[in-house]
UniProtKB/TrEMBL annotation:
Source species: Halomonas campaniensis
UniProt name for this protein: AraC-like DNA-binding protein
Sample GO molecular function, one term: sequence-specific DNA binding
N-terminal signal peptide: none
Annotated PANTHER family: HTH-TYPE TRANSCRIPTIONAL ACTIVATOR RHAS-RELATED (PTHR46796), TRANSCRIPTIONAL ACTIVATOR FEAR (PTHR46796:SF10)
Pfam family of the protein (one): HTH_18
Domain of life according to the entry: Bacteria
Keyword match Chaperone: no
PROSITE patterns in alphabetical order: HTH_ARAC_FAMILY_2 (PS01124)
Segments forming domain HTH araC/xylS-type: 160-258
Keywords: DNA-binding, Transcription, Transcription regulation
Length: 259
């Protein structure tokens, strides 16, 4: 059995931006994760998954309530699988795909098996990958999106209005759909246009606004760090401190102690 690394996890409300030298499959049984691959954005939900090829830069921001299956597929690990060549072709480019009810039920069942028998993760992963391959083979690119999206000029993206709205809602969950709706754009078009104009994805921009406001509160108020975290939309102090350190290169506590 090839080594396929499958795990069940909850993706926090913490912005992560990276790439890696293996393919990856993302599939959720509940909750929402905002995800962008090579600058093009979408959402991972119970009805939508994503395939991420090797070396594709991607970023994500979970809602802290999701349950997500993450499958890492190292180079060469597909060779022993049935239909290995066809499965490998699924990762020729980044792709979101629809998850029908029967596949969602299978994912939920496999997640339970994985949690009960973690030693069988490679066998469970192979079954999941095979099921997704059969689904996508029967409905190739079934209207749910391969990249890239069209990039068209748009006059409706008002950055000042978006910034003001985001700053008023830092304590809340902020979804890309909400920002796109403010501009009367589709999510895909908004994401592309926003990145063209700012150099950031909407997820990265919102995280940046949260952390900049947090630093003001850390350095110029007596609020506890846990309270600051909640005011800028983090569900706990731990995820807030990790994101703060990644962004500023120092911890909130160290910033507060600095002269």
């Amino acid at each position: 059995m090839p080594h396929l690394d499958l795990r069940a996890t909850t993706l926090d409300r913490e912005h992560v931006d990276h790439a890696h030298d293996f393919h990856q499959l993302i599939l959720a049984t509940c909750g929402v994760t905002e995800l962008a691959v090579d600058g093009e954005g979408g959402r991972i939900t119970a009805s939508r998954g994503c395939l991420i090829p090797t070396s594709s830069r991607h970023e994500y921001l979970g809602d802290g309530r999701n349950r997500t299956l993450v499958l890492d597929i190292p180079r060469g690990s597909l060779a022993a699988l049935r239909d290995a060549d066809r499965i490998e072709r699924l990762f020729e480019g980044p792709r979101f795909f629809s998850v029908p009810p029967q596949l969602h039920r299978l994912a939920g069942s496999l997640m339970q098996q994985l949690e009960q028998c973690p030693a069988l993760h490679s066998e469970i992963a192979a079954l999941l990958l095979r099921a997704i391959h059969l689904h996508l083979e029967s409905e190739p690119l079934a209207g749910d999106g391969a990249f890239p999206l069209a990039r068209r000029p748009c006059e409706r993206l008002h950055l000042a209005r978006l910034e003001a709205w985001v700053d008023r809602h830092l304590a809340d969950e902020i979804r890309v759909e909400q920002l796109a709706a403010l501009c009367a754009l589709s999510v895909g078009h908004f994401h592309s246009r926003f990145r063209e104009m700012t150099g950031l994805t909407p997820q990265a921009y919102v995280q940046q606004r949260r952390l900049r406001h947090a630093r003001t509160l850390v350095c110029h108020s007596d609020l506890s760090l846990g309270h600051v975290a909640s005011l800028v939309g983090f569900r706990d102090q731990g995820s807030f401190s990790r994101a703060y350190r990644r962004h500023f290169g120092t911890t909130p506590s160290a910033d507060r102690r600095a002269p």
